[in-house]
Amino acid sequence: MDDLRSTLTRAGFRDFKLERRAARVLVRTVSDPDRAAALLARVFGVAYAAPVEIVPARLDDVLQAVVRFVDDHLGHGESFAIRSRHSKLSQLPRREIEQKGGAEVLRSLAGREVTVNLEEPDFLISVDTADDLALIYRDRIAGPGGLPLSSRWKMLVVVDSGIVSILAAVAMMRRGCLVEPFIPISAQLSRFAKGTQLALVKVLGELVPRPQYFAHVVDLDMTLKADTSQISSEGVRKMAVQYAAHRFRGTIFSDVSGKISKVSKNYRSPVFYPLLGLDVEELNSLCEFVGVSKRTLSPQLGVQYEDLNNDELFDYPVGDIVVMRLPLGLATEVHDDIACESHGMH
After folding, report:
1. Domains present along the chain, CATH in parentheses
2. Which of 20, 137, 152, 303 is buried deepest, with most CB atoms within 10 A?
3. What would the pLDDT profile of 139-162 be if each residue is shown by its tens digit?
């Protein structure tokens, strides 16, 4: 509920009310239902969102509302269907709503020559009964589903594989984990360029509607005593696992094949690989939810493992690792100058 409220407040909505009904949350007195539904469909734990008309769960009221709804939207010669879902507490039979509703629409709109098509209708009317209310709507927007954030562990994701790392974070966020990013930056390594890395984590910031949400930034050029260009992904992951050990319940890596990092074998801190076993279609679906082009995915997958498991780069001399906390809460603007809290780590 707090994430729903924060999402709407951040978008400028005021004086709305949230109300639980059966397995649904109703948002009342919202000024722009279509826009509100699109925003709430991006909140983790939401199966779908829809702008609805709310009427009492009495058969006569529901039938009248269905006819009004169809009258406003259905054109001459078009087809329709009615689908009803109900909570256990509702007294309205689902089949009765569908059958009598269809008959009433055909009678009331006979002059338009509308027809019933249960397979592929031009217009689908949904009627959900929730306790003593009926919710009538046409379009619903699929949400990420899963569990609400923070219903499971707080975890750290290593941003070392471009957009693939963000997809790994989202996969665990769907499972109820609040995921904060660990961001290596470097002026010597193009794949860890500060501008690119910060642009990536802004994507996560947009998905977490909370004031207290942070990224964790390590400047590789300041940390390493050797040439930064020699650092491997394994070296970065080693830093992340060490940093996460006493602050997070686990670390997330973005591997998508069976060739996984050796870091997880050397530390007792749990390491998770949420993208293992996903096919391209499933990865593209994550891209669509995040709002990035699927064309950005293939190049990242092609270079992801070029330096994994390179033991020669594991023991390069490292000084104190200074990790800076970067606020991302409620989509805080990420500036080039990072002013953060610093945490020393050996």
Report:
1. 11-142 (3.30.2130.30), 154-345 (3.40.50.620)
2. 137
3. 889 888 889 998 889 999 999 988
